[in-house]
């Protein structure tokens, strides 16, 4: 039922009308090679690697258990080498089935085998830093460090490598510091807010995001559900925006139904908390207990419920 396809990337947004036969054509320019997001007006987006050249993609909309609506997928892509390699890594994972534990194993095995293949056959390709960053949670920190040591100078200069470095710096900081930093920042109503002012809370999620971050905006759907389910049980969310445009920030807060605490200093990526906690990719989360003691960066539903008892 979709009528348009939209490709978003660092070069902007490029829409295309879907013809009666289901085909579409997109032309565009972007300043550098890297991933973009592509979707229809009735589906969630898929990632696609953009580089110089012509592409021919076969695409479809699919459903996945636990996700509302449709997802845009690219089961077949012909184009620049790096784009084909990226799609070969990204696409299969959406079709894995099994329990949560079985899926973790499948994601890990797939990513390890694919990274090994990339290093053995295409060691200088540009996609490796991003594939490695996105695979870290599946393959584990020690494996990620081993792969990082294999990268060449150009790959080490990639922003995805810096994100991995910052992840390990943040991990060390969170493990050595017991309590979350207390800063004063302006909320979306123009009032000063300090994290230390929160009282009678059992669990706090600090969420880093920005209005132009598509994955962040999709993650807000999950946060809305969490807040509805747990806010009356002592759960609170503090969303820290890395925007530098006040109107864009406030508009996103309203559109995404973010009824919890929203703060920003409107300094973009130079936000004090983001810099202090080495936030270089978003969305990023830090979980705290009611005393503002740092718990970690990820909690599942069972763990959330344990803290809220």
What are the key terms here?
single chain, alpha+beta, 7-stranded mixed β-sheet, 4-stranded antiparallel β-sheet, 10 helices, 37% helix
Task: Please outline the helices and strands.
Layout: E1 4-9, E2 12-17, E3 34-40, E4 43-44, E5 46-50, E6 56-64, E7 67-78, H1 81-90, H2 100-121, H3 128-139, H4 141-148, H5 153-156, H6 159-176, E8 184-187, E9 192-194, E10 203-209, H7 214-230, E11 235-241, H8 246-255, E12 261-264, H9 272-276, E13 284-289, E14 294-296, H10 301-307
Parallel strand pairs: 4-7, 10-11, 11-12
Antiparallel strand pairs: 1-2, 1-3, 3-5, 6-7, 8-9, 8-12, 10-13, 13-14
If you had to describe this structure to a student in words, what would you say it looks like?
Helices cover 37% and strands 26% of the residues. With 309 residues, the chain is of the alpha+beta class. β11, α8 and β12 form a beta-alpha-beta unit. It has a seven-stranded mixed β-sheet with strand order 9-8-12-11-10-13-14, covered by helices on one side. Strands 2-1-3-5 form a four-stranded antiparallel β-sheet. The termini are far apart. α2 packs antiparallel against α3. The model has no long low-confidence stretch (mean pLDDT 92). It contains ten helices and 14 strands. The longest helix has 22 residues.
């Amino acid at each position: 039922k979709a009528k348009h396809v939209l490709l978003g990337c660092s070069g902007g947004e490029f829409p295309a009308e879907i013809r009666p036969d289901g085909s579409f054509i997109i032309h565009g320019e972007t300043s550098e090679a890297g991933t973009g997001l592509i979707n229809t007006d009735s589906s969630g987006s898929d990632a696609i690697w953009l580089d110089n050249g012509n592409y021919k993609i076969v695409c479809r909309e699919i459903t996945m258990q636990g996700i509302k609506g449709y997802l845009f997928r690219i089961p077949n892509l012909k184009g620049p080498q790096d784009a084909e390699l990226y799609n070969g890594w990204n696409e299969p994972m959406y079709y894995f089935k099994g329990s949560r534990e079985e899926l973790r194993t499948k994601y890990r095995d797939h990513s390890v085998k694919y990274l090994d293949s990339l290093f053995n056959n295409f060691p200088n390709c540009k996609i490796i830093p991003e594939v490695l960053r996105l695979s870290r949670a599946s393959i584990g920190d020690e494996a990620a460090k081993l792969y990082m040591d294999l990268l060449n100078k150009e790959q080490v200069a990639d922003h995805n490598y810096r994100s991995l470095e910052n992840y390990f710096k943040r991990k060390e900081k969170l493990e050595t510091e017991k309590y979350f930093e207390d800063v004063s920042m302006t909320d979306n109503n123009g009032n000063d807010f300090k994290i230390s002012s929160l009282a009678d809370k059992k669990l706090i999620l600090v969420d880093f995001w920005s209005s132009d971050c598509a994955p962040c905006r999709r993650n807000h759907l999950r946060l809305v559900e969490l807040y509805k389910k747990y806010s009356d049980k002592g759960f609170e969310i503090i969303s820290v925006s890395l925007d530098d445009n006040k109107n864009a920030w406030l508009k996103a807060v309203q559109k995404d139904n973010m009824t919890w605490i929203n703060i920003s200093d409107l300094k973009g990526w130079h936000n004090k908390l983001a810099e202090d906690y080495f936030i270089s990719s978003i969305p990023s989360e830090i979980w705290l207990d009611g005393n503002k003691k740092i718990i970690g960066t990820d909690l599942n539903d069972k763990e959330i419920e344990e803290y809220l008892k």
